[in-house]
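Two proteins, back to back. First:
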Amino acid sequence: MTKELQQPEQGPRDAPIRLLPDQLISQIAAGEVIERPAAVVKELLENAIDADATRIDIRLQNGGIKRIAITDNGKGIEPDQLGLALTRHATSKIENLHDLENVTSLGFRGEALASIASVSDIEIHSRTASAAHAWKISGSTLSDSPAPASGQLGTTVDVRELYINTPARRKFLKTEQTEYGHCLDVIQRIALARPAIHFTLSHNDKPATQWLAGTLEERAAMILGKEFADASLYIDQDVGEGAQNLRLHGFIGLPAASRSRADSQYFYVNGRFVRDRLLTHAVRAAYEDVLFGNRFPSYLLFLDIPPSAVDVNVHPAKIEVRFRDSKSIHQFIRHTVNRALSRTADTASPVPVPPPSVIRAGSSTGIWRSETASRNMVRQNPTEYGSFISAALKGKLQNPPEDTPSLQLETHQASPAYSDENTQAEEAHPLGYALAQLRDTWILAQNTRGLVLVDMHAAHERILYEKLKADVSANTLQTQSLLIPVSFRADHIQAGTAEEHRDTLLSLGFDISPLSEGTLAIRSVPALLREADIESMVKEMLLELHEYGVSAIAGEKRNELLATVACHRSVRANRTLTLPEMNALLRQMEVTENADQCNHGRPTWIQIDWQTLDSFFMRGQ
């Protein structure tokens, strides 16, 4: 006997289509935008900044769950517009599609305040410069007219009992300290980008912290700590003109100060903090030659880009962006940061002696360059950035420095006697002159600032590595045609990427073409990589090309091979060098890029200044 099929019970799908109430729509939107108190803090701070505030006071209770009150001294809101401020999709920041495609403000959707009002008790006090007094309005009495109130110029948004209207969502919040920590992270991120604004923060009616208005360097030291400030390098590079102008500025952490976690990385696009895989990948690629092991760089970087070249409307919380020409942006960032990390002879100059300390290789107070030189030392090749800015870049920047000559240890350069007359000579050679070799491993040298200790194997390894890279780049790329093509199954994305980026792959030495539907054939590869795992490497390249528009896999594999060759060819420990040979090594270090670290990311030298030596022996005390 067969069982009759049971009909499904009538559910929501069988209900008629109807418009949702505005209150429910706002609560749904709040689920996307207002996920926790920190999101409320972010939206309100962005509104205060858009109002041109120079001082913002933040008051939190119970980690922001019970109360969030943010007061600014901005332009304020006219009383007849206070009601609109709490209405969905009402904003003063965009008017048409052109404005949406050229967003210059932090907020622009006009849904944040309405979403907050739908899940909390909210009250706004605001006063403009032309008003005799402030006006206030409550989210619960939105139908009423604004009422007179006392208050200074600017706006105060007071949010109480978050998720009072949606208690189920409140259960997903964490402890008070956890939520307060998230709020503090948001405040710090925004404060880093706005050093000209004075911020104060109090929690549970107790002052927590404040950041006075100042420079970016001062604000970075306040929030990220003196350790970051002392181990970072300032960069400022711009290319192009007008609508094609790009600028990258900020601080990059030195390789020797890398971290075990990626928890000290801040990237801003047009003043907006973002977490973008393209930007992270570009910076990581710039550090690939100088980081040791599974380490992460620290950085505080700002990318200024024409608003029309970036879409900030791709994420409800505006934490992600999309670039019109991602390849150009990736190349610009990677080369700018990479050049800033490099060390070139023409940027080397003496700087004042720092406080007593041991100066590690490449410290921000190190001997390689003055601050002025460091801000102008980045050189680019205009043809490397793609179509978006290649035309604007022509003639704007200099080409990379000429390849340095290979090290010749069998030299007869003399080490001068030390006297006041040698000061000028030492300034021309910031690593000074060799005094002795210690345990056949380290070179002890003296310069105007003190003593320099160099790991001769690590230093020579970097010199040879950079020379090999320069030699390979100077020659036309030699490719190896495969007698039997390497074929592999490819999905639609891999096949499409191979076709779309065929010219790029050819320029990297890879001839990849369809063999049949769903199969790709690798017909030629760079000669240096013919022994590598070709199929795996090509798959990685196609993945990077699809996600970022560029791929550094081939370069990384090639550099790994060159690094191995350099390591075996460099002078080994336990080899005795003459003074002329040691001085030749120092001179080559001064003209070699990335000479602060060996190929594995370890430091190659340290500086011990005279003040430190005096303090060791208590001289003058």
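And the second protein:
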Amino acid sequence: MRLAEASAHAALALPRREKVLRAFALLLFLAWGWMLLSALGTTLHSVDNVRDFRVALGIATGEAFPTVSQPFAASKQLPPVFFYTIALPLVLWPTEFAVFAFTAVAVLLSVGFLALAVQRRFGALATITYLALALPPHGTVVFQGVSNPALAFVCINVLLASYLWSQSARTALLMGVVLAAWAAPQMHPSAFFIAAFVFVASLIAGGRAWLRPAPAILLSLLALVTLLWVMRYGLVAPEAQSLGPSGNSSPITAAALRVLSVEHWGALWSTPWVHLQAIAGLPQWISSAAKIASWVVFASAIFGMWQLVRRGDRALRALAIALFANLICVTASLESWGFWYLDASWPMIALCAAIGSARAFRAIWAQRVLWPLTVVALALPCALFLVTKSRGEYAIAAHGLFLPSPPREETLPVPTARTLIDLRAIVGERAGCDPARVVGIDEAFLRDMTLRTLFLDGCHARPAVLAPSTTDEERILIRRIESKLPTPTEAKALIATVGPYRVYSLRREAVSVHGRESGALWGSAQGARYGFFAVLGLPKAAIIESRANAGASLYVGFRCSALNTQTLLAQIDSASKVEVMGERSLPPFTYAELRLTNATDQTDVLRLTARSDLPCDASAWVM
């Protein structure tokens, strides 16, 4: 009798436990939704993102219809599917926030789709682990933006989910596999290997189901369209750089050496965590735990692949082989990289780590350990989101942003989209159509983000009679709060504080740059399609000068291409005392700020002269 009662109790406990697991999974999903959607604009909006947004806005407004993508790594081009995808929300709402919301919702829905497929195939325990790892650590910040890797991530989520569901042989799901595998590499080429291998695995596992008219016709049409496009435009971008292999090794030999290098494997697959360690405001224990987390998650993913091979059916074994082949090819192909080159592979890591963890923690007592671990897994992305939101910038460690050998140890603080948009509004209100009224090397850095497009748009949209006068008695100086560069001392000089920046008002003094009394010489012509504005350049004998009041200094900000600060100093002459106040870099440009002060009291003129042609823009102000 007692045995029968115990059996009945166990039968009731199992559905109850399943409900608890599903409720917990839903909470994890909602946590990601809160981070992605609660503060739109807490995302990177750098040079490439601004370029892509402007192209998509041109599509939405009917101004231009591009036939190729932006160049990837300054060498490859693809069909412009990404541009037309992000143009869709801009038809209804022509602002950056429309794309932010569109991408965030797409990411969230794709995570939910794959979670349902994991639940159906591997159970609630694997679903919980998957949802804890659903996005890479930087995903809550990077993925809600104008982001190629984010939409490649979405496509791979859809591809994996369709693959797992398509074992039911439904035609719609087979077509989902085709579309996702076709679109993913066009969003970002880093998705090529995983899309190709999973698609081949689907062909092997699906068998005769692929002979049905609908998927066969769709596959044939997409292949034909892609082939015709390649024949017309080619995969090599016009501005491709001819970079040869390093040393005497052939590309195949170099790739093989990367695969055989344990150091390379460790450096590459820890990249999604390493670049976070420069972010100020993150608790120290989180930065330290990031290194450990990278190995734990990766080891769990390898164990999960082994479980698919050992215990899975034909389709799951084919999937495991496809995912392992992707690991090998990505490791072999990436010599130097940005963390976003691994975003397309992240769904594979999260899926396999979930399968491996569910198997390792299948015992009831072990699950009591797994539950708190899933909460801890959300600590890093959640902390990163909150810190980035509060600081208004995302400080990236250069050795995790790009990791060549030897690594650069510098930090590149990138303002969030919200910071840039708010700053853009203030600068637009105070400076209007006159970019010469905004100065500082931080301003120069920001011009290569979004501020230069403000001046271009303002000048095109504003009638000349309404443009602000260049004789207005004000200049606008932009400084990072943590900058050690000098700032105005007058109490009334501070206009506003925007994220990590302060905006100051300076009195407009008589300053000229190469004969321009506005005090600035800036190129505004679009450079390479990679997104930078071309340097206008200072010719030989160009003069930058001012007649400063007693005790005042002339500051000159340079933006130089292929010229470092020391070389710049060797190429200028000045009777005044010249000091280097600060320098920054955002490849391919170097930014430097110089201060000129009177060497004697015999003259109030502060002047420097270019000894040769300088590949530099310049801006000058008195303070």
